[in-house]
Design goal:
Helix content is about 35%, strand content about 15%. The protein is of the alpha/beta class and about 270 residues long. It starts with 5 loop residues before the first strand and ends with a strand.
């Protein structure tokens, strides 16, 4: 697994980009079958965040992704760095939930995250959302006991904690010309100073493409394409844009050439 920063892919080869699963079990089963059948020497896999979600079981999704990684890593020529898992909004919320005792307004923070899909992950680990809300009213010690329970349940699932602790913020092609992110980028800031723009961006393909075209510093002139997992509701993909959104309201899998050009887009 990559370290929790910006991952760098190996030179050459094709890249499979998997976007916005949101725990959709049936989509992941289909995509897994496609990857196992069509994987060739030199291929890479970038999972574009938002693996967790409400469409199915988040814990089962992580189990299946870890299983798929093991199967593909066993293929001839495969290397550990060929498999990159990115942080998305749902993974960031899970990370924040585990640190809820440090929040200034923990109940407000928890309710905000619950309204955006966090409940499914808490419940998938067999923990209580209601108890979390009660703890949030009773102070840091009560919250710390609740979050300790979340961590304990995560640790009981082999590989889950390691995966979630090793998520990369974004990924780059070997030449730095292709950027992979969960939701987008902010071209007004250098790549190293994106903060949470990688998973909270709400720009449409058209808006983000325009922002990239106006960028004059921060290294963006060298970026040929941004590959992201998902865009905002109602997003319309543009032909020949510098922005490629893999998912269109449902999970998506895209096969990219070594220069970031789209070879094939596969729906659920």
């Amino acid at each position: 697994m990559t370290s929790a920063s910006i991952a760098r892919l190996r030179d050459g080869g094709r890249t499979w980009a998997l976007g916005a699963l949101a725990s959709d079990d049936s989509a992941l089963e289909r995509f897994s079958a496609i990857l196992l059948e069509r994987w060739t020497t030199g291929d890479r896999l970038v999972v574009l965040g938002n693996m967790l979600g409400e469409a199915g079981s988040p814990t089962r999704t992580l189990d299946r992704l870890l299983w798929l990684r093991r199967k593909l890593l066993a293929r001839p020529g495969a290397e550990v760095e060929d498999f990159v898992f990115l942080r998305g909004a749902l993974e960031e919320m899970w990370h924040k939930a585990l640190q809820l005792q440090f929040a200034m307004s923990p109940l407000d923070v928890l309710d905000w995250m619950l309204a955006r899909g966090l409940a499914a992950t808490i419940e998938a680990y067999g923990h209580s959302v209601a108890e979390g809300r009660v703890a949030s009213r009773n102070g840091p010690l009560a919250i710390a006991r609740w979050t300790a329970g979340l961590r304990e349940r995560q640790v009981l699932q082999p590989g889950h904690a390691d995966l979630m602790n090793s998520l990369a913020r974004a990924a780059l092609s070997a030449d730095g010309a292709v950027v992979f992110a969960a939701a987008g980028v902010d071209p007004t800031r250098p790549l190293a100073e994106q903060a949470d723009a990688f998973w909270w961006s709400n720009q449409s393909d058209e808006s983000l493409d325009g922002s990239l075209g106006r960028a004059i510093d921060g290294g963006w002139l060298a970026v040929r394409r941004v590959i992201r997992g998902s865009g905002p509701p109602g997003n319309t993909a543009l032909a020949d844009s510098r922005v490629l959104t893999v998912s269109a309201g449902s999970p998506g899998l895209a096969l990219l050439d070594s220069d970031g050009s789209l070879v094939e887009r596969i729906g659920p």
